[in-house]
Amino acid sequence: MWIVAHRKALFIFTALMVAAAVGAVAVFGLKFGIDFTGGMLIEVAYEGERPSADRVELRLTQADIGGFSLRATDDAGYLLRTKPLAEEKVAAVLDALRMGGAAQMEVVRRTHVGPTIGEELRRKALVAIAVVVVIIVLFVAFAFRDVAASKEGEKKQKEHAPHRHGVSSFTYGLIAIAALLHDIIIPVGVYAALGYFWGAEADVLFVMALLAILGYSVNDTIVVFDRVRELLRLNAARGVHAPFAEVVGKALDASLARSVNTSFTTLLTLAALIVWGAEVTRYFAVTLMAGVIAGTYSSLVLAPTLLIAAYERGKKKKA
């Protein structure tokens, strides 16, 4: 398969993508929302026609409240995020949202998130991601503990080769994690750019998107790994000793259509959510879309080529 044949060039392309994502995070940084930094959230709904965002933003700027984020909601209203404000400033904000009394509105929600709670949420989010990663490593290592060959096939194989044809189950787990890191770094880099150019804030939905990407991506990677395992078992049982790169290429051929079709239908759903979904879930959907694309790439390109590289390296050590 061409992926296997051009794996060195694809390694370079992958490295460039990861470097670009890391560079975006380093240069732009992540713009954390009040979920993590603390602040105030005010949601209002208007009776009748909603004032234009430009007019509302002008009023809020004149209120001198510092930085803020204003997003439209589906209920003919706005969602305003600001830093913590004193009561007199809150009154000025509400007056600005009412356009000085020209618009009738109702305060749907008014919430204050302290910095202590925000710091705790940030810590819990990192712990959740770390726990998921550890569980995935253990699961993959356990699921692929017999990946090289069955006992009967291994006996036949040893008659012709001094080593087992494949890599250890722990190596499969490490490669899965390397692919997952790629799948997390890419959407984080995309989100950093979104935050810099369009004001996207990293909030709880952003963390949920990353966790969803981890689950989606590892499932796709395991499908490819499982095809490799099946082919190795079949070759070992038959006493066939095909090159490992050829085995991985055949596994990719068998998995390619399924992975691409699944990802394509998922992307169609996410595209619909971006175009017609609520404003508050738009960046969530964009993050998921970036993660699905990165996950499909890593499952079909990065993980299999790393598997071949690990096998060839192990073979050289045994030689």
Care to give the gist of this entry?
The protein has 319 residues and is α+β, with helices and mostly antiparallel strands. Helices cover 70% and strands 9% of the residues.
Q: Tell me the fraction of residues in β-strands, as a range.
A: 5-15%
CATH homologous superfamily classification of the largest domain = Multidrug efflux transporter AcrB transmembrane domain
Spatial strand sequence of the major β-sheet = 2-3-1-4
In round numbers, the mean pLDDT is 84
Alpha carbon gyration radius: 25 Å
Count of distinct strands: 4
The assigned CATH architecture of the largest domain is Up-down Bundle
Poorly predicted segments: 148-165
Classify the helix fraction into a percent range: 55-70%
Please identify the top-level CATH class of the largest domain. Answer: Mainly Alpha
Sheet/helix structural class:
alpha+beta
Largest sheet: 4 strands, antiparallel
Number of helices: 11
Q: Shape from CA axes? A: elongated
Number of domains: 2
Distance between the termini: 27 Å
Listing every helix as H and every strand as E from the N terminus to the C terminus, the arrangement reads HHHEHEEHEHHHHHH
